[in-house]
Amino acid sequence: NIQGVIFDLDGVLTDTAELHYLAWQKLADEEGIPFNRVANEALRGVSRRASLMLIIGHRPYSEEQIQEMMERKNRYYVELLKNMTSKDLLPGAIALLDELRQAGIKIGIGSASKNARTVIERLGIADKVDAIADGYSVQQPKPAPDLFLYAAKQLGIEPAQSVVVEDAAAGVEAALAAGMWAVGIGPVERVGAAHVVLPSLAGVKWADIRSQLQK
Ligand code: G16
Ligand code: MG
């Protein structure tokens, strides 16, 4: 029986993917590295370091330069977060969070981002979540199950009682590796490995998800 739902943040509750993209694009432009929106798709749900590695490819940067570029990108991103408000919640997100709360289902956030707490504050949903696992919580990034296992532990529930809602292939993989139920948000080509696939959270009712998972 399902006791809790763990939401990915970027791409599920809000579209920070666009802000991450703008910050990476600025950095890539400054470095003279070719980058665009299409290339950015591969960075969805991917950690900051792994994202930078995908952008720089085989270019010979030192560890010091890599650190500096990660910090620079983060400064651009944090600057963009200052304009974020509850208007940036994706359609259906608040309704589902409120419905889960009413139903007595625990709510967690499982985000790879070190800025997750800032984003949660800016979105105004801090009082709606029971636990946050973020980029500081565990060592191994998604697709390792660690982040979601950490979130479930914080919620005091077992993996088999947990549902993960994810927009990234690596996130769905992490949920399955954790032994949790997975709901994929987005195209089947990306999140088709999940138990249930939905185009977005718009109009989504908890009862629908639950019945689809139990069939
Ligand atoms: C998010 C984003 C990724 C980002 C990562 C790390 O993951 O989807 O694009 O690179 O967090 O973020 P930061 O640089 O802020 O630490 P998630 O798991 O919330 O989708
Ligand atoms: Mg995501």
From TrEMBL:
Protein name: Beta-phosphoglucomutase
Taxonomic superkingdom: Bacteria
Organism: Nostoc paludosum FACHB-159
Residues represented out of the complete protein: 789 to 1003 of 1003
Gene this protein is translated from: pgmB
Family to which the UniProt record says this protein belongs: Belongs to the HAD-like hydrolase superfamily. CbbY/CbbZ/Gph/YieH family.
